[in-house]
């Protein structure tokens, strides 16, 4: 039953690009896919983690595919599209699903996950715990499968959003200190994934302009502007993240990556919505409040749902619509060096580690 639903759910992705473009790896099998991060990559881990109500498991989440699965969108998310593009038949399952078929990989991502996990926080499996979990169950896959696999990473957004909420008056020095600790932690975890997990091929997206999220505009009452403090932290984070990845290729032999400028893509859409087919890039499709940004999925909230989801950049206060996710995935997979470097995911998959550039030229 669960498997059937999955296949049906995946059919939508099948139609969105041509099969002719599938990469062929050495073994002829599609590479495995593993994902780590927060709600943007969550495929349902949250609902297995705790009994607290998870709005992403109910309508209107999943509205475009008639199936709310725990994904924070009206349909597929970026790793779903990428999984299909690298040749997988089914979307990878949430690792916490006791019935999950892990043969093609797994998603360890969970809503609310942060890089700097504090002990007291038990609301989510944080980034470090996700990596530990992978290392713990790694024998489900051979060394070779793990070395050929693609590791998609999207983490840090909640660190900055939580900080802005808790310390709205933090000065730039404090903000930069946070960025430094977040990146130290990310680098430590990636090192662990490489050393203990056997990962080699990393696909990392930078953080979007979080200060422009509908939920941030709404809660901080920014009017027509974005919240500068958050965008400043994100900008600093993103600049240092690419340096960090570059630096890691030096001591860590065979460490290769694809770095996607998600931030630039979202900003382009916000500044020229109509060019990208949006009528709205600042308000969410589902929710309530001045930016319609709060409470999607909660039945005690009188939330509104837009009539045409494809014309919105954001589905809820902080997550993209399926339309946006599909475009992002296409660019991540096959975009040129202006958006994804030193190679895109297609090259990352097809080429062997020794044949991949270590740094952008
Ligand atoms: C494989 O994964 C399952 C499910 O998470 C886990 O319980 C099991 O211990 C893993 N097996 C090995 C050999 O790592």
TrEMBL record:
Similarity section: Belongs to the 'GDSL' lipolytic enzyme family.
Name under which the protein is recorded: GDSL esterase/lipase
Keyword match Magnesium: no
Family matches, as Pfam families: Lipase_GDSL (PF00657)
CDD domains: SGNH_plant_lipase_like
Signal peptide start-end: 1-20
Single annotated GO MF: lipase activity
Alphabetical keyword list: Signal
A biological process from GO: endoplasmic reticulum organization
